[in-house]
Amino acid sequence: MNTIQLEGNLARDIEINFTKSGMAVARGSVACNRRVKDGSEWKDVADFVPFVAFDALAEGMNEWTKGTRVWIVGRFSTTKYEKNGETRYSSNVVVTGAGIAIFPFKKKDGNNSGFNGLGTEVDEEIPF
């Protein structure tokens, strides 16, 4: 099975172009953080994963800007092409689903609850 799930921040604004037939093609990259051990200390490292989306999915990314927290689901794809007589390869995640991440896994203030500030407090006991 070739399925990839990513959550991270956009490393750049989305670039949208259109094919000759009018289909939208969106390109971008997601910065996904991970921790690695360097000697006796842990360091945060970012992997920059390129992606491409097509048609209505690409058009839906039109308002996405650098730094936006997003999730991407897709498949890994490598294409082979020739440029100036040289064989080259390009790898991307071909997006099959995407959205803006409403509740990030970890917030800068250390509070991982995505529900702070939502709703109102109720000062009564629930009868069950």
Structure in words:
With 128 residues, the protein is mainly beta. Helices cover 4% and strands 55% of the residues. The protein contains 1 helix and 6 strands, in the order ββββαββ. It has one helix at 55-59; strands at residues 4-10, 15-18, 24-38, 41-54, 69-83, 86-100. The chain has a 5-stranded mixed β-barrel with strand order 1-3-4-6-5. The longest helix is centred in the middle third of the chain and has 5 residues, at 55-59.
What's the alpha carbon Rg, rounded to whole Å?
20 Å
Order of helices and strands: EEEEHEE
Distance between the termini: 45 Å
Task: Indicate the low-confidence ranges by residue numbers.
Answer: none
Helix content: under 10%
Oligomer: single chain
Tell me the strand order in the biggest sheet.
1-3-4-6-5
Structural class: mainly beta
Write down how many β-strands occur, each being a DSSP E stretch of 2 or more residues: 6
Number of helices: 1
Offer a concise description of the structure.
With 128 residues, the chain is mainly beta. The protein is built from 1 helix and 6 strands; from the N terminus they run ββββαββ. The protein has a 5-stranded mixed barrel.
SSE inventory with pairings:
Blueprint: E1 4-10, E2 15-18, E3 24-38, E4 41-54, H1 55-59, E5 69-83, E6 86-100
Parallel strand pairs: 4-6
Antiparallel strand pairs: 1-3, 1-5, 2-3, 3-4, 5-6
